[in-house]
Amino acid sequence: MTADALTDVAGLRVGHATRAGDGWLTGTTVVLAPEGGAVAAVDVRGGGPGTKETDALDPRNVVQRVDAVVLTGGSAYGLDAASGVMAWLEERGRGVSVGPDPAHVVPVVPAACVFDLGRGGDFRARPDAATGRAAVAAAAASAPGAPVPEGCVGAGTGAVAGQLKGGVGTASTVLGSGITVAALVVVNAAGAVLDPETGVLYGELFQGRVAYPKERVHEAARRRLAEAAAGNAPPPLNTTLAVVATDAALTKAQAQKLAGTAHDGIARAVRPVHLLHDGDTVFALATGDRPLDAHPLAPNDLLAAGADLVTRAIVRAVRAAEPAAGPGGVWPSYTELYGKG
């Protein structure tokens, strides 16, 4: 039995810290690696990214493994959440050793943010170090292989997908080789996730099980979306973030390729993507529990699966999201407009 989630990669845990109400609509999500960390890489395609410690993940650089990845709301302000995660890791002696004392470590915590400022009504209500600490503590307290809450939680709390409410989604698969691949996505896209002519989610077109909404349902949904959009400020900055993970033994270069091809999964489910006001960023993690065949093309199945899972996770995020309405705006959810399908 699997959770169909990022936590199906043994050793990875996910924690959310969610703030909603009283001007808040934001949060932070932390992916906590097992003791000893995971090989990590990143690929940034959006023209307006907000990130931290991504240069450390370049295969040419010295850091090989990281202990956590932070996905957060709050735009660049929210990157402060990573400081809380660093402090939590330091207290446990986890990080890059920099001295003779085992306590002398520097945790490398890559982070990326989505723009959700003011969506709860208060522009200054955004994640900070305490939010990051709460999220990593939640991850550490979760059971191995635990299901991951989806929808409007953590970094997906204030997320918006086009004119719909966005959120967090996750998915996993086991390849014929026995290698597990999984993805977790925060969908906060300026581009649309549904076909305006039919109401079908773009991502579902790639899953082979499309159920087209009835015309009257779609027309009612279009009117509702237009009404909501007329009252909302246009989204100035948006981002889709993802973590793609595997238990395969990958080099940093191979992990970087996994992060890069995973962007194809975003492009299938969000149109358009990777524009100047997007910060689309994908991290890759490899725990190394399973050896990879030495053949140079052996990673291909893994690369293809990563992209497919990102698409599926985006669909799940949008379907799991709940509508939001408040001083910061009104965002219907897909299931509110079209049903669970």
Rg result: 19 Å
Number of strands: 17
How widely separated are the two ends? 24 Å
The arrangement of helices and strands along the chain is: EEEEEEHHEEEHEEEEHEHEHEEH
**Class per helix and strand makeup:** alpha+beta
Low-confidence stretches: none
User: So how many helices?
Assistant: 7
Give the overall pLDDT as a whole number.
Answer: 94
What percentage of residues falls in helices of 4 or more residues?
25-40%
Shape: globular
Strand content: 25-35%
Largest sheet: 6 strands, mixed
Task: Describe the structure using short key phrases.
single chain, about 350 residues, alpha+beta, six-stranded mixed sheet, five-stranded mixed sheet, 7 helices, about 25% helix, globular
